[in-house]
Amino acid sequence: MSYRDIARVEGWDEKTVANHCKGLGLTSQPRQPLVEFSDVESAREGRETVREVAVRLGVTIQAVHQCAYRHGTRIHRRPSRITYEVLREVILSDAPISHAAEGLGVTRETLYRRAGQLGLPGDRRGRTLLRRREGVA
Predict the structure, then answer these.
(1) What is the pLDDT of residues 36-56, one digit of tens each?
(2) Residues 86-106, buried b or exposed e (16+ Cβ, 10 A)?
């Protein structure tokens, strides 16, 4: 059994179990990596996003990238689906930015950041046209 399993059965903390086992001279089995190279390939080929792989395996996004690094490869970022044309339509529409963000599956802040990355016009304080339209400082 793992320390986690023992702790759950006995109602103890996992660290307490580890300390008792260490005191008794018992060692734990080396951990098997949770992220396999096939998972990395799934993300590289676009069948899943890195976030989806991480959630499925119960690990962090960084763990997926580390596995790729250990195997001598990288998982490149996907191109943003929020293009200049998409933001242009958001600006020209009369709908609130929050509705546009919800429709795209992102936050308003993501739209603001992407507008800045694309060089949309702004003022001297760095506010993009989107922020000025919403009245956000």
Answers:
(1) 899 999 888 888 888 899 999
(2) bbeebbeeeeebeebbeebeb
